[in-house]
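SAMPLE LOG
Freezer: B-3
Tube label: C17
Construct: single chain, 325 aa
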Amino acid sequence: MAIGAGIGASLGVATESVFGTGVTVTRFYEFNSENLQFRKNTAEGMGLRAGGQLPRSQRRVLTTKDAGGDLDLDLPTRGLGLLLSYAMGTTPSATTVSSGVYSYTFTLGDTYGRSFTTQVGVPQYGGTVTPKTLAGCKVNNFELSVANGEIAKGKFGIDAQSLTTATALATVSYPATGSVFNFAQGAITLNGSAVANIKDFSVTVDNAIKNDRYNLGALGLKSEQNISGFRKVSGKITAEFTDTTLLAAFLADTTASLALTFTGDVISSTYKDTLSITLPACKFDADTPNVSGPGVVDLSMTFTVYDDGTNQPMTIVYQTSEAAL
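STRUCTURE (predicted):
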């Protein structure tokens, strides 16, 4: 029995061998919230009938179904690599940095053939936990962000083939050690030079997956989602107006590189938990700075990430003590 409230909830994932065939989840995350929902499409036949004043229940049918929603969590120093592999579409092997220290490099790849199962344990008032299990999951979109003075956050939009409450609740276990990446650990470079006037940062990736592949013979279930368009990578930053570097890039529409790095706790010797996001080709959009009163002036900048033909458009490097994703 669990505590009969959200405090007793659990969230786990595991990689599927066959799309849509659920597996027992084995990697568990501390999370902030989720809104994973069963989604059904129904149709009702009109069926005009003498004496009938309401549609008949027998003529309502379930035609297609799926599931999905968002997962919100603090970015952990342990276990994050598996979620990044689902989101980015690459499954890198560990590079040994030192004894007990491993690095993983994620670039944008094909998400096809990379489905996973998600299970949320939802406590009832009395403490009984109802498992909500989604199979055939893909990350439709995701956002990595850090607000001023806050813990770094991850928001992962999930699209799934199915949802059931009949699968048994998996045994929950969490990493014995680890913390979360946060604002104090962050540093940003612009065109390779450190900048000290950035107050917050977010980057959002739309994986452009086709999630409506419904075909006859599949009992209303969708086929595996695949990329069906250009991915969109964009973001936002807020900067103190201490110089005109960002303003000049906006006015001239020049291409600039952005890189955010979190340097966390010591893993071994001098090696630390690290998470870095590199975006080599950004174009900025913003409002020209305005004086709206007696206070200081900030720049609210949005940016779009492009492919410069040379570098990977987006690279995430994750350094941790885990030898496997």
